[in-house]
Structures are given as structure tokens and as C-alpha cells.
Amino acid sequence: KYLVAEWEPQASSACFKRKMASVKETSPPKKASSVKSRRWKRFTHEQIRAKVEQRRDLKCYHTLLMESAVEKDERGIVFDSHHPSWRKLISLVVTQGSENDRRFREELKKRTPDLYTIRQHCRRYGVPPDARGRVWTLLLEEAAVQARVGKPRGDFTKLLPPDDQGLRVIKADVSRTFPYNEMFQRPEVQRELETLLSAYCREYGVQYKQGMNFIFAIFFQLGLPNSRARYHSACLFMETMTGGTFKDSDFGGLQAVFRVFRLLLLYHDPNLCNYLDQYDMVPELYASSWFITLHANRLPVDTLVRLWDALLLDRREDRLLHLFVSLGLLIKRRKGLLNEGVVTLPERLSRLAISSIQEVEELVTEARRKYRPDTPASVRRQLLAIALRPTSVSSPEYQLLESMHCVMVSAEEVVASCYAEKKRRPTSPHTGDGGGAAGAGSPRGAPGTPMARGTAGGDGGGENFGPVKYFVLDCRPEEEYRSGHLACAYHLDPELLFKPEKLNQAARDLASMRGCHFCLCSDRAPPSRNDSPCTMLVLYLLQKGFKFISRLDGGYAACHEAIARQHKSASPSSLRGEGKHGPSPRQGLPGSSRGRGFEMLVDHDPERCVECLRLDAVRAGRRSGRGPGAGVSGTGVGGGGRRLFGMLQARVSDMLFGLAAPASEESSSLEAARGGDTAGGGPGGP
């Protein structure tokens, strides 16, 4: 009785009675879902939504579909295939499908087809099996133009020499390619596959690696006309879709992909990542085939081509889709993995694979709507630049990637997220007694802090940073925080590392906001330092199972500079707003226009802001010719923060294991540190 009310809320009571009368006339037995008859068709709610979206060109599709509905429960809806509305719906779909297919075929026959039309048709109706070879070739040629990759020459006379070590490995692998497929057991097919692999290695100057044979073998099953067409498409696929996996001898590109995959898993599911790390289950042990062959040696051909359809159709927008699909596969199996012991876990991981075509569609949809939008745009660009190009394990980029404890978000993205909807100068959030998180109670009580989480939808490519909203946890010392901070920042005092009880209370307060994207902001300390307060707080939150933990790349200084760049017309010292005590009496440098720029910051006081003092010191040094570091006092800038940082270095192990010194010792140590700073460099720092 609630079918019409839910699916057609605008229906009148008379319409409702007519529909219910028609349902009673053709109603199935009490349990239509249990009757094995061709008359009753059951579809899940997700399948129905997908079909309605796919057939959105048919205005009456939804109406006719629901007119033929006879039963609904939490699993889905049962439809009567003998209902007149169902038969009319089928005829409309067939007619429209024939027309769309005719226009699609005509477009493919053109000398220069419209790739936008082809891509939209394939996304909505799927890639026709008999046209898949042609569609893939067109998409790969477009990708090659974007990547500035030349077309392969296809000179089959220039092959690897007979005594080459790679040629011997090629012959051994060709005989093991898809052993249960009769096509690849024929001698002529094996000889052709060997020729194509040898020609590719010779033309592109790469050493053959295991896994190339499975990628080339897929192009034998697409209906391409001849060997040259197969070689052309396979070479373009290798150059545009596999990144730097096969480009270096030490598999540096593949190692970079593994590091990127672990960071994504840590961001989206830290509990599962910590569990795998506990037993040293690194991605190299279970995900090699996912990224070397893009699942080619683990899936049946009909399932694999559906996955590659999605990868090729989305390559222009997102080249990390295969990472998100693999991430979704691992997280989907998390319940079984967490129940495995240390003995059976490696075997369970090694057998992970996509089970069906339907699961391919589910994983691709989840990757597009969930994992890709919930990953920061700057993180995607950073990981894309590292993972999809040849990388050496000794390069600085790889070393930085290996030392990262969490993903790094750019300052521009955080600033854009914080001030996307704020046109006026924000008010200062009350952080409780002393500015610490423990004294503030729940962070929900802090006004002016956005609580929105990332929504599924849209792509954050380019300068559009996407839907991710950040809740910034400012981990700087209290005196630096009170001299200026972002509007959506909440002070997580690093002194709480000395007080496990209060730190646990702060974590419980933040736990009520799980689902938000937390970005930890620190000073200029490098993110690779294990002993910095921000790093220790990142590790603490990850061990507590908080999702969406990231770190601000460059710290508060990067946000300060990003805001300054938005006002290039003003000099650095003039980019200051009024602090909470009114206009600053500090005289600006020549050419300044006071009151512009840093009004976006909350409680910004240029007399105490470390970054403003640094900018003034650099500018004064340039004017006097003493160099960029002149005028910076060793004890005058952030003395309290530097002394506190030295104390935290001695307490790393205590924080990780939950140990703490007696309260009297902590208070006396902090009093001594503050007293030393006061004696050496003034009260509380600068």
C-alpha cells in the first residue's frame, strides 16, 4: 500500500485507489519472491535506481515501471512481467535502444568519431562486445595524445636477439598464459604473442617483466582485425595505463604504487590498515597482481573487460580509479580479514579477487561515488604525480612518500575549504579554559567550526578542490595559536601529550565527530620527523581508529603564505587585519595598505604572530642588505614553543605506550620551561 506514496508522492487518493485495484487483480501469491516463475521479476533498490538513471531519457519509464510493481520489501521490489505497463515499457526500451545503438554505430564508422558521444553512450549502456576493440582503440589514442605518447611503429622485423635473457623469459611465460583458454594453446597464437612482446621491448627499450604477457593476451580477444591492430592497442595501453610499473629494473614505480595504496587504506580504513601492519601484511604480499597486470591474471576475461571498460572511460577524469577499485575490494572483505588469524591471513589475502561482473559494477560505482570524492583533491594530484611515472627507490620523492605517516593536504585546499562560505571576518571559537581540547569539552560546542563531511559526488580535479570539508586541529603551542589561526581550527594543545587522561578525553570528544575530515596543523617541522608533537598526535588518532586523518603540508606557515598570495597587491607586512584588541599600533613598511589580507584569520595579532615577525625580519634584512635571515632573534620568536618541543622529544615513548610522569613532576617541568623562556626571551615568546 505504500508503493505509490513512496515513489509518487504527488499522486492523489483517486489515483492511489485505481493503482491498488490493479495490483489486487494481478497480485501474486503471499510470497511472490519465493515463487520460481518467469512472471515475477525481483530487482534490488540499487538496481532500480541505476536503471531509472540509465533510462532517464524515457520520461514515462519510472511511471510504467511502478505501475507493474506488486510487492516491496527491504530487499527490493517484485514486478509482474505480464502486466500491460511492463510490456509497454519493454517495447519502449527496445525501440529507444535500437535507435541509440544505430546512432552509436554510425558514429564509430566515421573517420574522426566524436569521442564525447561514444563515451557517454558507453557509460550509459555499456560497451558493446562486438565494438569493444574499436572503442578501446579510440580511447587509447586519445589518452596517448594527452600523455604525449607517439604511436607505435609496429616493425616486426626488429625483435630481441636470440641470446637475450628477456626472450627466454618471454617464451616461458607465453606457454603459461591463460592455460585454460584453448586460444592460447594454439602454436600460431603463441608465436604471435611472442613476436608482439619482443617487438614492444625492442621498440620502447624496456626489459621484459612478468605480467606483460597477460596484458597483451587480452587484446587477442577483442575482435581486432590483425596483428598490427593488436600491437597498436596493446602498446598504447602499456604506455598510458600502467604508469611506471614496467619502466625501471628495480620496480621503483610499483613500490611507489604500493606506498600510495597503503596511505589511501590508512586514510579510509585505519583499523584494517593497522591490523594488516600488525602482522606485516604489506601490499607487496597480496596486491602485486592488482597493479602489475590490473587484475588481468586473476579474473575471467568477461569480468576483466568490464573493469577495463570503466578504467578507460574514466581515464581522462581520474587515472587513480584502479587504486580506488582495489581499495574498495579490500575494504569490502574487511570483516572476513579481521576474523582471520596470523596463520590463515596470508592465504586469505592472496586469494582476494573480484567475484563477478556485478561486483565489478558495484566496486566501480563505490569508487566513483565514495572513495574518490572522499579523498582530497590535492592528495590525488600528489599521489598521481608519484605513482604513475617512473620512480627510483632512491629518489627524494620516494623517500618522502615512504616517510609519510598520513596523507598531506595542500594549504590552498584547506584555506578554500575553511572560507568557501565565509564572506565576513569570522568570530573566534571558544576553546575552553587554557585553550586545550580537554578543557573545552566536546568540539561541537565551538562556534564557527564546520561540521560538514565530504559528500559523494563531483571530482576535485584542477582548481576545484571538491566537496571535502576539513575540521582543522591546530597542534601548535597555545601562545602561537592565540596569535592567529584559521576560522575552522580547534586547538589540540600539544601539552596534552603529557596528560594521557585529558588526551583520551579529547579523543572521546572528537569521536562524536567521526566521519569528518580531520586535518592536523603544526608549525614548520618537517612531516617526516617522528618526534614532533603533530606526528605523535597523528599516530595517536590513527591508533584510535579515526578515519580521514591528514596533515597540513607546510603547516600554519603555508596557510599564512597562501592567504598572502591571494592579496598580491599588498606588501607582506601590510597583509594584517586587526587583532582582537583593535588596530595594531605597529607601523607598516613603506607602501603598505593596512587592514587588507589577513582579516581571514581569527584573532590575528601581528605583534605576536610568528609568521608576520618572520616576514618582517626577512623584508628588513633585504632592505639593509644583511641577508634573508637577518633580524630574527634566536630566543625572541616562539621561545615557549621551541622549549616545549624539546621536552616532547624526551616523552615520545611515554606517549605511545600511555605512560605519564606524576602530575607534580609535569607541572614543575612546565613551570621551569616557561620560566626559562620568560627569563630568556620575554613572557611566552616574542
Structure description:
The chain is mainly alpha-helical and 686 residues long. It contains 32 helices and eight strands. Mean pLDDT is 76; it is low at 1-13, 23-28, 30-36, 423-442, 444-463, 569-596 and 628-686.
Which terms summarize this structure?
five-stranded parallel β-sheet; mainly alpha; 8 strands; three-stranded antiparallel β-sheet; disordered C terminus; 686 residues
Distance linking N and C termini: 72 Å
Q: What portion of residues belong to β-strands?
A: under 5%
- Total helices: the number is 32
Q: Report low-confidence residues grouped into runs of 5 or more.
A: 1-13, 23-28, 30-36, 423-442, 444-463, 569-596, 628-686
Task: Please state the CA-atom Rg, rounded to the nearest Å.
Answer: 31 Å
Shape: globular
Q: Tell me about the biggest sheet?
A: 5 strands, parallel
Helix content: 40-55%
What's the number of extended β-strand segments? 8
- Assign the structural class, choosing from mainly alpha, mainly beta, alpha/beta, alpha+beta, or little secondary structure: mainly alpha
- Strand line-up in the sheet with most strands: 4-8-7-5-6
- Give the integer mean of the pLDDT values: 76
